[in-house]
Amino acid sequence: MIPARDHRATAVEVALTDLERALCRDRCHVVVSASTGPAKALLLGALAERVAGVLRVIPLPAADPGDDLCAPILRELGEACGDDAEASLVAVVRRLASQGSALALVAGEARALPEPLLRRLGRLCALARPGLRLVLVADAGDGRDAISAFMAPLGIGAVKVSLDGPPQRTASDDRPAPSAPPRVAAHGDAMRSRAIRVGARRGRAPRRARAALLGVAVVALGFVAADRTLLPAQRAVAPPRVPHHAPPTAPALPSKPAPPPEVAEAIAPVELASVALGVATARVEIAPITPIAVAAVDPVAAAAPPAALEEPPEPAVSEAPAEPEAPPARTVRVSLNAQPWAHIAIDGRDVGVTPMADLELTEGPHRFRARFPDGRVMERTLRVDAVRDHLSFP
Amino acid sequence: MLRLAGSTPTLRARTRAWCAVLPLACAWAASAGDLAPPLAQVDRRIDQIEAALAAAHFRSALALTRGAAVLLDPFAPAADGVASRRARLELLTATAEIARGRRTQARDHLASALRADPSLELSERDTSPRLLALLPDARQLAARAETTR
C-alpha cells in the first residue's frame, strides 16, 4: 500500500518541477491556481528550497498602499536600503541577474492585493526585468475575469500553472506585455506542452465510482449466471488492488521534497480501489516533454561568433550591458541528444556521439554542430547557463 | 446456467439481458473513464521516457524508467505484450545510462533487454554507436544469465 502522504508529495514534486521550469528556464512570471489551500502552501513552501541555487524566493511583504514596498524586500534580502529604496532594489536584482540568479516574489493571495501595490509591483518588474519574477497565487475558483483583475494593474504577462489542470496562459497574455522580452511567448508554448494534473480530482470521482460500481454489479451477476467472468485475460495479469485510505487532512511536506520515483509510479495500481471507496487520490500525468532547444536559442548569441571551449563569455554578447560588474565564468553541465544520433562538435571541437550528459562548458554562448549518420549537418547556438543546459537535435 | 428458483421466464429473460448488456456497459465505462488497462499506463510512461530522452533530460528519463518498471512488475513475464515493453524499457534505461557515461549499468540494462526479448534487434542507423558498442558484452551477459538460470 502506498501512503497517501507519498501521493501528495509526488503531486507537489511534479508541480514544483513545473514551477521551476517556468521560473528558472522560461523566466516567466507565474500565476499559480489551485483549489486546495494545503497544496498551495506545501508547494510554495518547498519552492524556495527547490530553486535555492538559482532563485532567491521571498514572500511579498505585507505593505499598506502608502508604505514603501522596496524597503521590506531589501530587508528580507539582507541588503542595505539606501536613500532611494527602489533604485537599491533594482540594483540588487540586477546584480542577482548578473550572477545567473533572480529574485522571485511570492504573493500568497494575489486577488487581495490592492491596486496601487499591484501597479508598483508592475513598475518594479519593468525596471528590474529579467531578474525579478512574480509568483501570484490565485484560487482555482477565480475565473478569467478575477485573474485579469489583478493582472491588469501589473501590466505583465504570466504563465498560469494550474494544480487542477493543464497550464495555460493568463488572460493578460492576450495583449503585449510591456516588460516581457519577445521570447516569453515561445516559452509559454513550451509550458503549454506539458500538461500536469495534480491534487484531488474530485470532479472525476463520481464517474469513476459509477464505473467501479458497474464492475462490481457485473461480477455479481456473472457469478449468478454460471461463472461468467469479466475480461479474463485482463484479470489474469492485473495487479492486486489494495484498498487505500487517504487521510482527511493534507499531510506535512516531507523534509526531503523529492520522493523516490518508485513510490511515485506505484500510485496507479491502487488508484481504482481508492476510487471505489470514495476516497479522492492524487494523480499525476505528465505529457511528453517537447524539445526546448529551439526556444532556448538566444538570437543575440546566434549572431555572435563562436567562442572557444572553456573561454569566458565575451562582454559584447552579455545579456545586461549596463551591469556594474562582469559575471564570473562558471561551468555548466550540458546534456545533448539527437534523433536518431549524431556526432557533436562544440565551437569547432569534436566531443563525441550522442547521447551525452554532464558535458562541462563555460557559461555563455556556444555553437553546437550535429552531423547525422545520413550526412545532414545542423548548427545551433545556445547561450549556456544554469537553466539552459539541455540541447537536442533536430 | 443456474436456474433461479421461483422466478418467472420474464425475470430470467431480463437477467440474461442484463448479463449481456452490463459487461458491454462496463467495458464502455472503462474505455471512457480512467479505468484503462494497466498496460496502457506503461505505454504512456514509455512515451514520456522517449520524449524526455529526445529532449536530453536524462535524469528525468531515468526516474521515469524506474517508475515504469514498478508498473510492469505485477505482470507475468509471459503475459501478452509484457516482454516487448520490458525490453523497450530496459533499452531506454540503457540509453539514459550511457548518456551519463555509466557503461556498466548501460550494459546490464541492455543485457536485461535481451533477456526480456531475445529477438531484440538494434538498427545501426537508429541506435547510437555508444550503445551498439556495448551489444557484444550485453549479449554475452544475457547468454550467461540464461545458462545459469
Describe the 3D structure.
- The complex is a heterodimer of chains A (394) and B (149).
- The longest helix of chain A has 22 residues, at 4-25.
- Chain A has helices spanning 4-25, 37-50, 70-77, 85-98, 115-128, 144-154, 183-192, 205-224, 232-237, 261-265, 267-276, 293-296, 299-303; strands spanning 29-34, 55-59, 102-107, 132-139, 158-162, 168-169, 331-338, 343-346, 349-353, 356-362, 364-371, 377-384, 390-393.
- In chain A, a hairpin with a 5-residue loop joins strand 11 and strand 12.
- Chain A is flat, with a radius of gyration of 24 Å.
- Chain A has 13 helices and 13 strands.
- Chain A has a 6-stranded mixed beta sheet with strand order 2-3-4-1-5-6, with helices on both faces. A 4-stranded antiparallel beta sheet of chain A has the order 9-8-11-12.
- In chain A, helix 1 packs across helix 2, helix 3 packs across helix 4 and helix 5 (115-128) crosses helix 6.
- Chain A folds into 2 domains: 1-286, no CATH class; 293-393, no CATH class.
- By secondary structure, chain B is mainly alpha-helical.
- Chain B folds into 2 domains: 7-35; 38-148.
- Chain B is 71% helix and 0% strand.
- The longest helix of chain B has 24 residues, at 9-32.
- The N and C termini of chain B lie far apart (46 Å).
- The relative contact order of chain B is 0.08.
- Residues 32-36 of chain B have low confidence and may be disordered.
- Chains A and B meet through helix 8, helix 9, helix 10, helix 11 and strand 7 of A and helix 1, helix 2, helix 3 and helix 4 of B.
Label this structure with key terms.
heterodimer, A: 394 residues, alpha/beta, four-stranded antiparallel sheet, 13 strands, flat, B: 2 domains, elongated
For the residues shown, what is the average pLDDT of chain A? Answer: 63
Question: Which parts of chain A are unreliable, with pLDDT below 50 for 5 consecutive residues or more?
Answer: 1-6, 165-205, 226-321
Quick one: how many beta strands of chain A?
Answer: 13
Largest sheet of chain B: none
N-to-C order of helices and strands of chain B: HHHHHHH
How many structural domains of chain A?
2
Would you count the extended β strands of chain B for me? 0
Structural class of chain B: mainly alpha
User: pLDDT below 50 for ≥5 consecutive residues: which ranges of chain B?
Assistant: 32-36
Q: Tell me the major beta sheet of chain A.
A: 6 strands, mixed
How would you describe the oligomerization state of the chains in this entry? Answer: heterodimer
